Structure formats: C-alpha cells, structure tokens
Amino acid sequence: MESLSSAQHRLVAQMPRIADFEWVPVREAAGRYLAVDVVAEQDVPSAPVSLFDGYALHAPAAVDWVADVAGTTFAGEPAGQLPNQQVVWRIFTGAPLPVGANAVVAQESTVSAEQGQIVLKEAMKPGAGVRPQGADSQRGARVLAAGHRLDAAALALLTSVGRASVPVVRRPRVAVFTTGDELVEPGQPLPPGKIYDANHPLLSVSLARLGAEVVDLGVLPDDLAAIKSALIEQAGRVDLLLTSGGVSVGDADLVRAAVSELGSIDAWRVFLKPGKPLAYGRVGQTPFIGLPGNPVSTFVTFQLFVRPALRAIQGADAGLDSPVIRLPLATDYVAGDRPEFIRVRRVLSPSGETALEIFPNQNSGLLSSLAWADGVALVPPDQRLSAGSPVDYFPFDGWFS
C-alpha cells in the first residue's frame, strides 16, 4: 500500500491548472485565488508617518529638553515643516511627519511647560516613533503571489495598495455523482434493502464550501452505460469528475470499469484508515477522482485528496497545507495496523486543559460520528496510546478554509 503523503503528492502533481481568470471587486474576492502576482503601485505608507499621538522633532534630543510647539498636523492633512531644529510639532497617529523631523516622542513621554512649550522626559533617537515610507509595501514590489488564497488580511493588503479589483482564477467546476442501486433520494419511500443517499449532500456541500461550482449529476444506477454516458457528457466541460463508490474490485463497482474504458484509471490502496480504496484517472483530459463509498471514508478522503486537488487546480501556493494542532487524548486508544484518522472533539480535561474525546465507535459507516465530532486525530499504527498522549488534531473548520 502507498503512504498518505506519497499518494497526496502524486495526485496533486497530476492536476492541470485552470488558465482562465476573471476580475472581481476586492470586497467580493474572499476565498478566491490570485491569477497573477500583484505589485504595489505606490509606497505604503506614502510618506513617513507617526506611530502615535505625540510631537515630531529632529533627533537626537536629550531628556529635559524644552521646546516650543511650532504647529499641528492631523492624520489626512499635508505634512508641515519644522522652521528649525529647536522646535517640535504636534502630531497625531498616522499623520505625515513635517519636513525636517525624523522622530516622534509619545505624548505621555512629555510634560507641558510654559504656554506653547513641552519638556521631553525621554531621550530620542532618529527613527523613533516613526513608520518609514514604504515600510509596509514598496512601489514596484510584489505584495502577493499568484496562487495566494485571498482571506481578510490579504484583501486588506490589496486595498492598502489601492487595488479596487483583482484577477482571480475562475472557480473550478466539479461534476459529482454517487452510484448504487441501493441508493434512494431523501423524501422517497425506503423499500427493503435500500438506503438514503447521504454521500451526495456530503460531497456537494463540501465542494460548495471550498468555492467550487458544483455540477450535480445526482444518483446513477449500477449501469455501465449510464455511468459512461454521464462521464462522456461532462468530460471537457468541467475541471474535475468526482464520484463516491464503485471504485473497488467488486462486480458492481462499475465506475472503475467505465473510467478505464473511456480513458485511464489508477486504483490505489492507500496505507490509511478509513479510506484505503481510492481511484484516480482521466476521462479524455479531465481528471477523475473516485472516493470510497462508506460515508466517513468519503468525508476523510475528500479532505485529504479532493481539497488539495482543488487548491492545485487553482494554482495554490500550498496545495497540501492542512491546519493541524497538537493536543492530548482524553482517554486511552489502541491503534490498528494502519495510520488512522479517528473522530474526536475538544473537551476540557479535569485539569482545565484542552484534550480530545474519542467517539466510542470508529466504524466508517457511522455518519453520527461525524456530526458528533469537531475534527479528527491522526493516530500512528501499532501503538497503545494512553490518556494524555499527544496526537495531531485536524479541526473540521480548518479543512474548509
């Protein structure tokens, strides 16, 4: 079997990049990926500015220096000018330094003397209390690279350099369907031997939360012709074909057979629990990922493989990054013979520290465990872990960022 890391990197390396991009307003670009590098068109700040309310002066200046206040500048006003180096200038946070000044003393480090004078209670050196011109961004310098996922901080940075809109990669289009004669749509009567299709909303909602455009093909029967028809219709129209179920080696696992006939498929056995069976291939030039059918396996492999694939398709600068926290287990756990992602949730231990409570039944068919959990913990194989043992914890919220 192949290691998780090897399988992830192999899959991501084969993902084609979306070449199309569109311009969107900065305020509507959250969660999108930059299509090109963004360069600052001016220095930020455009002039030296004060870090706080105080007095601008020409340093060096000694303690107990008495100086006249020659003028005042508020934020947003043009810079003033020191008439000479024996005076100070009243200045407020973010205001440009007057010409001739090179430092700012904080208001609380001065005392008032005679009318119109202050006394320094702190020695001043050049540069103190000043944010230099271009300290944040310099004209002509790259501020964000292509592939950067735009969050609130990145959008604020883009706004600070004057960008009202930015070029972002087109949203990836993903065609998704589930297969199985046993599956029934919710709201319909449930005949004996049938189950409701829970994987479909799991995949569709997960894709939408990651910013993909979902092409919903619904539930397909265990019919080779129907599966091939759906794949042929969407190949070339979407950026990724995604299914759950039908990729193992059973007689009814027809998705694997359909992809093999229409293109190529590479079925992997990943050294992982849950989610050992996984398939990757192509229909024409369109990549295909087939996830296992058990709900928990579907969810975990979606996060471990589809999420980084979507990032790679959009040219992300860190296609495999996944938020992880090191936390202790709240109870003992006996690991199996494969690395295992177990469902957990954060609780407070008796000592008041955060620990991970383990869902009592780790069967991969139990959707109730996913609804109960707030993340998964990665447990190394062949170990007996006692309460307090640290493990890697992956919060679900981080997986959707």
Question: Which SSEs are present, and which pair or pack?
Answer:
Elements: H1 4-13, E1 21-25, E2 38-39, E3 49-50, E4 54-57, E5 66-73, E6 87-91, E7 103-106, E8 110-112, E9 117-120, E10 130-131, E11 142-144, H2 152-160, E12 165-169, E13 173-179, E14 183-184, E15 195-196, H3 199-209, E16 213-220, H4 224-234, E17 240-244, H5 254-262, E18 263-269, E19 277-283, E20 286-291, H6 295-313, E21 325-328, E22 333-334, E23 340-348, E24 354-358, H7 367-372, E25 375-379, E26 384-385, E27 390-395, H8 396-399
Parallel strand pairs: 5-6, 13-16, 13-17, 14-15, 17-20
Antiparallel strand pairs: 1-12, 2-11, 3-10, 4-6, 4-7, 5-9, 8-9, 18-19, 19-20, 21-27, 22-26, 23-24, 23-25, 25-27
Helix pairs in contact: 1-6, 3-6, 4-5
Essential attributes:
alpha+beta, Molybdenum Cofactor Biosythetic Enzyme, Chain A, Molybdopterin biosynthesis moea protein, domain 2, Molybdopterin biosynthesis moeA protein, domain 3, 4 domains, 6-stranded mixed β-sheet, 8 helices, elongated
